Amino acid sequence: MAEHAEGMPKPGRGNTSTSSVSPSFFITINPNHMKNHLVYLPTDFVFKHMKLENSTVMVYSDDGTGAWHLSFVFKQRSKSERGRGRGIFCGGWSAFCEDNSLKSGDICRFKLISRDEMEVTIERN
């Protein structure tokens, strides 16, 4: 079952799934993802499966037609801020969106291959 980052099922936000062999999460593209040139990853996914440090994640298309280097930025929150921290794809995100002709409502499923590799499947709106 896909789970919203805060633990409540909610379509359209960074949903996570760990019921299959490979953990994954879903992002429903909205205009801010393209305008701001970044996307926040589900917090639970980040803490369970990602390196909690800035790094590069290689993302491969599920059909083998493309690959992108995405900058993963981990922002640890201070004690005065609420929450544990955030994971963000930023550098390379704009090229990823453009290369895949992403539009608002498209759903990207990112499946973990390793801590620095993912496979993406795109479902068109």
From TrEMBL:
List where this protein forms a coiled coil.
Answer: none
Looking at the record, the residues that make up the TF-B3 domain are 24-125
Q: Where is this region: Disordered?
A: 1-20
The protein's matches in PROSITE patterns, at most eight in alphabetical order, are given as: B3
Q: Where is it found, in Gene Ontology cellular component terms?
A: nucleus
Give yes or no: UniProt keyword Protein biosynthesis. Answer: no
Please give the chief subcellular localization of this protein. Answer: nucleus
- Kindly list the places in or outside the cell where this protein is found, as annotated in its UniProt entry: Nucleus
Q: What is this protein called?
A: TF-B3 domain-containing protein
Q: Which organism is it from?
A: Linum trigynum
